[in-house]
Amino acid sequence: MIVPRQKIVAFTGNTRRPSRSLNLAALIARRIQAHLDADYRHLDVLDAGPGLGAALTRKQLTPEALAVVEAVEEADILVAVSPVYKGSYTGLFKHLFDFVDMDALIGRPVVIGATGGGPRHSLVVEHQMRPLFGFFSALTIPTAVYAEDASFQDDEVADPAILARVEAAAVQCAELARAVGPRRQRGEGAAAPVEQTGRVIPLKS
To answer: What's the whole-model pTM score?
Structure first.
């Protein structure tokens, strides 16, 4: 049987380009690819356009904004990174996930990351991003990546400690993705089973 290549989608909350958040997400995705046969696509709120912020319901999304939402929903692996403003991910980052189907990310490997001006923002990945994907019942990778301004050189991650965390997250994600398999192999929209107390319990029928 031919196993389809997994699809990595990185979505970032940056509102400008070039962006350190975009570069961090791209680095994470490339390191996952180094350990897993997978394709990679990057999208951000700029790809969604002004139609994202103007929409109050999914039906009001422009075709560009809807395409980004659907790409997130259809990913085998999601890399989600946002810059931190006032102690939180960007509003448009969260606004996009407000339109994501609540069942779309069940059992999906997700690597979370963030960038910020200094260490005071570092807990955003644990206190805000991890609970967000917990709501979606995603399989959030244990190692999250936060990189402050001092971790970058020419907008690329240069801090050895952050690079080590990126590698750890990539290895964990690749191992989990191999165990879960691509969604096209296990059935479109189907979630991976989770072993609990000796039994295999499907997260979604």
So the answer is: 0.88
